[in-house]
Amino acid sequence: MKSIKIKNLRSIKNSENIELSALNILLGQNSSGKSTFLRLFPLLKQSIEARTRGPILWYGDYVDFGDFNIAVSKGENEMSFEFEFQIPASKMQRRYYNPRFLYNLLEDTNFILTLTMKSGGENKTFISQLILSFFDQKTEISFDANGKIISYLINNEDFTNMMKNKVAILRNGIIPTLFVPLEENRLPKKDYDVLNELKKFLKQRLRANTSENKIENIIANSGIGSDKYFYENLLENSNKYPSTWGKIIKKWDLKSSDFIKYKNLIIVLKYQRLLTMVDDYLVTAISNFHYIKPLRATAERYYRRQDLAVATVDAQGSNLAMFIDNLTPKKRNEFQEWIKKTFGFYPVIKTVERHVSIRLIDAKTNNDFNITDKGFGFSQILPIITQLWSIIYESNINRQRFNVPIFLAIEQPELHLHPALQAKLIDSFIETIKLAKEKGVELKLILETHSQTIVNYIGHKIADNDFSEKEVSIVLFEFQENTNNSFVKQSNYNKQGFLENWPIGFFEPK
């Protein structure tokens, strides 16, 4: 995931493209929109983890946006989310549906997906427009509240009539599936309009005796990519087919009407498979979103032991003791050593009958404290650093399918922490980002904070060459009372650790 853009979500009218770096710091006054942006990540995650009637589950286990009509900006009737991401061609050699029609990306592809949503009444949200752009290709589909296709454009060419027998439904992800409904006799309606159009296009240009099998092979092996690469691929493979086909292609260029028509028809034919692939990517990426709420669970002196397998720390850290207790001895030792290195203490689990307690061991003195006796800050920081360790050492193997990044979104990590402990927390973030790179994991941290200490300390780390300014993104949110909208812009550090494009007095009382 390279960037995200939000329109008409609460106070955010238009965030523009927010580039996502390894460390993303969201800053602004209360109610300025930074929490809204950060909570988009758990909002999407709860939407794919439950069966829903619409693309977004506005109220769930992680966050509560109410419903569409509450979440949409005042005075607006639609909102949109835009995602930019890259899928390597090597990951997409996969067959969908009819094995004769291999779906393949010709090259590593940068996609920009825009989903526009409206209210369908009765707390129902529906996708009203889907725009998918890649290279010099742009596809646009509009739907009504029942999923019926209103318009279907491929590179501004209108294919609506060819696709009017299809409707959109949601299955498992957030992108609708286009399918042909069953007839009254329960048999599927014929769905060969695009394929027949392609065959007709080729038959009119090839020799009359060209076999159906050869025509289908030409279609099946025409991949999807940029105009230039699409054309070069046709030329490269033309010797596998009748010589007439090669002669036809050599007469084309990127502006030829026949080339444009053929390319657009190929995209239409393989469009559902393209959507399925993009949705698979998004579901895989979203499943690798992790979230920590601003108010972590209060530490307890004892926790009742449960015979449950706990694989992840929840958003509040309420199952922290059970998570540590479930670690194997080897993993627990690795975890303790990792925390000891940065923070100078490490947690252990002690059992008393059917109860467990979290004890903190001082690495220098070996003094042993119950977590409740070490101050509230330790109970707030431990879920964060445990989650950090977990997502790197216990990262989901599904991530490898598309090599998607792992996101950890944290609200107010500085709560109840002395500035010195805040600095140590940033040290752990930076070290984790470096460790992730060594493991071939792309980690992106998103912090919503009010801490000037955090902002200044990151600058010091950059100035000391302990961290690269290219790894950090500063996103500033300012609420404009006269418009009830939030203004969003990005700042950055220079190589000396100084902030650029920084509004004077940003941290000052107003």
If you had to describe this structure to a student in words, what would you say it looks like?
By secondary structure, the protein is an alpha+beta fold. Among the domains are: 89-288, no CATH class; 292-394, no CATH class. It has 15 helices and 22 strands. It has helices at residues 34-38, 40-48, 68-71, 160-163, 193-203, 212-220, 227-237, 243-251, 257-269, 271-286, 320-326, 329-343, 376-393, 419-438, 452-463, and strands at 3-9, 12-14, 18-19, 23-28, 78-87, 109-121, 124-134, 137-143, 149-154, 157-158, 167-169, 177-179, 289-292, 303-304, 345-352, 355-362, 368-370, 406-411, 443-448, 472-480, 485-493, 499-500. Strand 18, helix 14 and strand 19 (443-448) form a beta-alpha-beta unit. It starts with a strand and ends in a 10-residue tail after the last strand.
Q: pLDDT average, as an integer?
A: 88
The low-pLDDT segments are 91-102, 184-189
Q: Give the C-alpha Rg.
A: 27 Å
Distance between the termini: 36 Å
Q: Give the class from helix and strand content and strand pairing.
A: alpha+beta
* Distinct helical segment count: 15
Strand percentage lies at 25-35%
Q: Using DSSP, what is the number of strands?
A: 22
As an assembly, this protein is single chain
Task: Categorize the overall geometry.
Answer: elongated
- What's the helical proportion of residues? 25-40%
Largest sheet composition: 9 strands, antiparallel
